[in-house]
Write a structure and sequence with these properties.
The structure is a single chain. The chain is of the alpha+beta class. It contains ten helices and 15 strands. It has a four-stranded mixed beta sheet with strand order 10-11-15-14. The chain has a three-stranded mixed beta sheet with strand order 1-9-8. Helix 2 runs antiparallel to helix 3 and helix 4 (64-73) runs parallel beside helix 5 (82-94). The structure holds zinc ion (2 copies). Residues 185, 187-188, 192, 235, 237-238, 242 line the site of one zinc ion (ZN).
């Protein structure tokens, strides 16, 4: 049978468990074969493919020796000596991840080793195919500096916090922010290289390097050129990254009523893509600045307003600050310190619901006068006599 170096899930193909008995495998194959046999599905390409797959799976799993190698290595090839598979499995189990000393496991068999693949000379399509699968299987072992894939890659998004002053957030306006972003390299226009590809210096263009593992010697794909034999000179400006870091001042519009924590998306202002990939977006998280008098909670404005004892006691009309300037607030008679009074629609104009406004919430803070003259103290004592109720009575009643 043909050499198979791709990792395949034979158990899955036959729909059996890894622990399946030979009898179970035989039954599963027969059942699947009856369904997908080309005689039953004339002209059906998919059924034909499927039949090939199940035949291949059965070929390996129904043979005790082949199945053991498959279980140990993850694929089956006629070239693999059971002792080598054993050593490989032991190595994998040890978990140290080093590609040395495979106890005689000969990698050259998967490449263009002379005499290994009759009719499959170096460079033939079949050879290239086994190359690919070789890399897939062992890519985790040879963690050399692989060349980056050169297709278009989208740029990543950026996220910045943007502090916007109190008034700009309420009334809207323009704001600026300095951001560091990656831009397409102006020298190589994102190609990351200068000039055309040249012969790889590591492998002299062969695409392979020899690695020693204990007594063993095996060929592996050149990690520098990724087995292609060709490398390109990195662009001097971007050092082969294709992008350069830039500090840029970004100007953006703030909508009136923008709240703290709101996100603003600036499309295409993130990092540049590579090789023509689209740029990412820039996300700004708005942090609204504080104000010495007003505190903003959503669309509401909170503030504390001091009032005198007569104002709180007798009631009064007082001027209070709002975000639109002075406004009159009615203090009802008998207002207590800490009491909250709501001024409807004196808050922030909503960014989410145009035409709607929040409220201004005034917390009353009654200021107790310091009495400096005897006349005032006399009046206060008289007041006490006329209002002799004990404000702590309720406390004691609850004991
Ligand atoms: Zn460049
Ligand atoms: Zn090379």
């Amino acid at each position: 049978m043909a050499t198979t170096t791709e990792k395949k899930d034979y158990y899955g193909t036959l729909g059996v468990k890894k622990t399946a008995s030979p009898e179970e495998i035989r039954k599963a194959f027969r059942k699947a074969a009856r369904r997908y046999h080309p005689d039953v599905n004339p002209g059906d390409k998919r059924a034909e493919e499927k039949f090939k797959e199940i035949s291949e799976a059965n070929d390996v799993l129904s043979d005790e020796k082949k199945r053991k190698i498959y279980d140990q290595v993850g694929f089956y090839s006629d070239q693999i000596d059971p002792a080598q598979a054993e050593a490989y499995a032991r190595h994998q189990g040890s978990g140290d991840g080093m590609p040395v000393d495979f106890g005689g496991f000969d990698f050259s068999g998967f490449q263009s080793g002379p005499g290994r693949h009759p009719g499959q000379g170096a460079g033939s399509p079949a050879d290239a195919a086994s190359w690919g699968s070789f890399k897939d299987i062992f890519s985790g072992m040879f963690s050399g500096a692989q060349q980056r894939p050169r297709g278009p890659q989208p740029g990543s998004d950026l996220e910045y916090q943007a502090t916007v002053d109190f008034w700009s957030a309420i009334r809207g306006g323009q704001a600026r922010l300095e951001v560091h972003r990656q831009e397409t390299c102006p020298t190589c226009h994102g190609q990351a290289s200068s000039g055309g590809p040249t012969q790889c210096a590591e492998c002299n263009g062969t695409g392979q390097v020899t690695q020693m593992g204990g007594r063993m010697k095996f060929n592996i794909p050149c990690p520098r050129c990724n087995g292609t034999g060709r490398t390109t000179n990195a662009c001097a400006t971007c050092h082969g990254e294709g992008v350069v870091s830039r500090t840029e001042t970004v100007e953006f519009r703030i909508k009136a009523g923008t709240r703290d924590g709101q996100r603003i998306r600036l499309q295409g202002k993130g990092n540049s893509g590579i090789n023509g990939g689209a740029a990412g977006d820039l996300f700004l998280i708005v942090r609204t600045g504080a104000h010495p008098v007003f505190a903003r909670v959503g669309d509401d404005i909170h503030l504390t307003v001091p009032v005198t004892v007569p104002e709180a006691s007798l009631g009064a009309k007082v001027d209070v600050p709002t975000i639109d300037g002075r406004a009159q607030l009615k203090i009802p008679p008998g207002t207590q310190s800490g009491q909250k009074l709501r001024m409807r629609e004196r808050g922030v104009e909503s960014a989410q619901n145009p035409g709607q406004r929040g409220d201004e919430i005034v917390t009353v803070e009654v200021q107790v006068p310091t009495l400096a003259d005897e006349r005032s103290r006399e009046i206060m004592r008289e007041l006490a006599k006329l209002n002799s109720n004990d404000p702590r009575m309720a406390l004691f009643e609850k004991l």
